[in-house]
Amino acid sequence: MTKAVFKRLTTIASAFRGRRIAVFGDLMLDRYVKGSVKRISPEAPVPVVRVTSESAVCGGAANVAVNLSSLGAAPVLVSVTGRDQAAAELSSLLSAAGVPAGSLVRDGAFRTIEKTRVIAEHQQVVRFDHEYPALLGAAAKRAALASLDAALRDGCGALILSDYGKGLLEPATIKAATALAAGRGVPVFVDPKVEHFQLYRGAACITPNTAEAFGGMRQTQRDGQPAAEELGRAIMKKLACRTLLITQGEHGMTLFVRKGSAVTPVHIPTRAREVFDVTGAGDTVISTLALTWAAGGAPEEAALAANFAASIVVAKLGTASVTVDELLESAKSWITA
């Protein structure tokens, strides 16, 4: 990366402050139980974790909003929670992260989604989930869409659809949400689930990982950059999206940009560094990408910023976010790399 590119990213990042970005999708409370393992249980062949700490952070769409806030933006988070202890904890965590909870729909018939991860010696031992998508009723979904409509009417530079497959984003709500954004000229960015992959036609950008991209196209996964580029062109043709970003783990990312009738792939390699945890990395990618785009960055610049951000969060343990200073420091280190 050249000094000129770094200067350009610095200019774009200075426009992050206060930029309104709507986030619509499944949110959850991520709990972490951490400890050490010294022995195997005599009751079953499983490790005994001696608990040393417990904590909770925002997960799913809530983590996307926290990432936006950490970068200086003004996220508008639209989702559904229950009226339970987990919802109260989420509200407190969101407030501490600078994310308003005023656009959330609270439904007493719904139970807030919780994921609990047990981590010992920096390794995840097990995860258990509390989720009840059948409790998310039609009235709550209509209320969420009305809240999204109000947010877009107030002005937003982008809409992020954070699809975790937990019930809020389904064919009807996806169609309605994208129509609301289209009616106001707001670009849509999607972190997709395989089962909804082909519903996101016409998006500004979708950001599947390699497995999701192959799964979304109902293809057997293949390795190698040529296979990724062939797949990317097929997705661009099928979904008619403006851009596509396939995240490839340690192999970096490949951005596909439509220029006239041609689709041009741009591979962005990642720098080697120790990976502690990929939890929430997709949230960081899409939040940074959408915010950089909304702040005036070209697709290539948005993808580059997202790559820098992802390289930071995977080196942190647990669900994490990135600051502007961290982002620019990571970018600066690439000048001489």
How are the SSEs ordered, and which strands pair?
Blueprint: H1 3-13, E1 20-25, E2 27-40, E3 47-60, H2 61-70, E4 74-78, E5 80-81, H3 85-96, E6 105-106, E7 113-120, E8 123-130, H4 138-153, E9 158-162, H5 171-183, E10 188-191, E11 205-206, H6 210-216, H7 225-239, E12 243-247, E13 253-259, E14 262-268, H8 281-294, H9 299-313, H10 324-333
Parallel strand pairs: 1-4, 1-9, 2-7, 5-6, 9-10, 10-11, 11-12
Antiparallel strand pairs: 2-3, 7-8, 12-13, 13-14
How much β-strand is present in the residues?
Answer: 25-35%
Average pLDDT: 91
Largest sheet: 8 strands, mixed
How many H/I helices?
10
One letter per element, helices H and strands E, the order comes to HEEEHEEHEEEHEHEEHHEEEHHH
- Tell me which oligomeric state these chains represent: single chain
Query: Based on helices, strands and strand pairing, what is the structural class?
Result: alpha/beta
Could you tell me the CATH topology label. UDP-N-acetylmuramoyl-L-alanine:D-glutamate ligase
User: What is the strand arrangement across the widest sheet?
Assistant: 4-1-9-10-11-12-13-14
CATH superfamily: Ribokinase
Radius of gyration, in Å, reads 20 Å
Distance between the termini: 8 Å
The CATH architecture category equals 3-Layer(aba) Sandwich
